Amino acid sequence: MSEAESSVQSYTLRLELVDEPGELLRSLKPIAEKGGNLLSIFHERGNVTPRGYIPVVVDVEATPDRFEKIVEALSQTNINVIQAGTERYSKELTVLLSGHLINTDFSNTLSRIQETRSATVTDISISAPQGSTETSSARVRMATQAGSKDEVLASIREIAEEKDLRIVEPLVAGGHT
Amino acid sequence: MNVGVLGAGAVGGSVVELAEEYGHTVTVFADSQSAVVDPDGIDAAAALSAKRTDGRVGSADPEAALDAEYDVLVEATPTTLGDAEPGFSHVRTALERDRHVVLANKGPIAERYGDIRRLEAESAGTVRFEATVGGALPVISTIEGFGPSRVGSLHGVLNGTANFILSRMSAEGLDYEHVLVEAQDLGVAETDPTFDVDGTDTALKGVIVANLLFEGEYSLEDASIEGIQALSGNMLELAREDGQTVRLIAEVRNGNIRVSPRLVPRESPVAPSGTHNAVQLTVEDAGQVTLSGRGAGGAETATAVLADVGRLGENRR
């Protein structure tokens, strides 16, 4: 490991939390568990986003590889990471998918979206009224890097075509402006 | 203006009914079976009543209609694809006689735009087609008003039937098939709603706008089209939980025409409810200009036809 990679740096994390008890604590846990050092927390309790989320800004000290693990752990706990370090996940992108989502390995679908490296999946909602073997639908929300939405959408289209899934794209990529 | 009306459906019938109110005289009225011709003005009420009771507007030969006396020919026969006949031939005959043409039929202007413009160039007549896009909404004249080169793009809802189905699916969490039957019962959807729900009708309108914006010779083949048939009630529900909804959107941008169901915020100006249409134009120096209202219906569409007839009358003076 090179000198630069092992050195501790400070990062800013912008999160959006669901307005429920315990969410703030849940968001901080991965930071501590993955070896980050909390510097400050700014919890904008009164400032709810138009979508009903509460913005939180966390300053954290960590080595670059630990910081990467923290962001990964946060994404896995369904906490919306809007910005991580200098990498800005500034644009939101929501799509609907439908088809044999479960039979075509939904987690593989999601990890392939993540693999585009320009998007991180921040929220998933699945509706499977007839059980997992029938057609089901999902809403997938992603945070994408500025300027990469077209590329992310193209990747999702490709995955959808391959797995014979129906995709409904947002009119204005990024949805809420 | 003396007006000849071809087509006795909802739009043609309403034009005949309303023409006098708008200061025009209907001298010819024809459906595919029959015609009524009178250079001093036909008896509109009698012709419409005959259409309702006998299925024919009069006793004259429909072939005679095109050669009769009129300043403007209103082409309101059903839209056909491909060679756009017989609408296209009607337009050609009128232009060759140096008469004006107002189209409610989308076929000729969507499928054979170049042919129409060439015929128009050689004629003393002018072709107008406000009624082909967005019913009562002045989409075409708004684009012309700004100047097509200043309008960068258009997006929005241009089919009331598809919009009605999606609004109902979203509001009630019902599936497509269920809502379609309801729409047919209400008379909102036709017995064969294929062109409305598979995106063809919306795409024709997109093609017409593209022809105007990009001075191209676009036709239906140039559009990418996806309909609403495969959408499920739970997809609409998932959208709703997120403050969004799904609408069948036409997007005309950068020389492309795309029709597809899209996620839009529920409060978006291009997410009208029921059978309404709503479009946004991106206009140089003016930003987004939104038009919304009744995008279909006989009387509504007839107002767009008569507005075109009125514009032709002003030019003549």
Please tell me about this protein's structure.
By secondary structure, chain A is an alpha+beta fold. Chain A is built from 5 helices and 9 strands. In chain A, strand 4 and strand 5 (87-88) form a beta hairpin. The relative contact order of chain A is 0.17. Mean pLDDT of chain A is 81; it is low at 1-5 and 173-177. Chain B has helices spanning 10-18, 44-54, 62-67, 87-96, 106-111, 113-121, 139-146, 160-172, 176-186, 194-197, 200-213, 233-241, 298-316; strands at residues 2-6, 25-30, 35-37, 72-75, 100-103, 127-128, 151-157, 223-225, 244-253, 256-265, 276-283, 287-294. In chain B, 54% of the residues are buried. Chain B has a 6-stranded mixed sheet, sandwiched between helices. A 6-stranded mixed sheet of chain B has the order 8-10-9-7-11-12. The mean pLDDT of chain B is 95. Chain B has 317 residues and is an alpha/beta fold. Chain B contains 13 helices and 12 strands. Helices cover 41% and strands 22% of the residues of chain B. The A-B interface holds A 50-51, 94-96, 98, 125, 127, 129, 135-139, 141, 166, 168-172, 175-176 and B 155, 230-232, 234-235, 237-239, 241-244, 246-247, 249, 251, 260-265, 268, 270. Chain A: This is Amino acid-binding protein. Chain B: Keywords: Oxidoreductase. Chain B: GO terms for molecular function: homoserine dehydrogenase activity. Chain B: It is an enzyme of class 1 (oxidoreductase). Chain B: This is homoserine dehydrogenase.
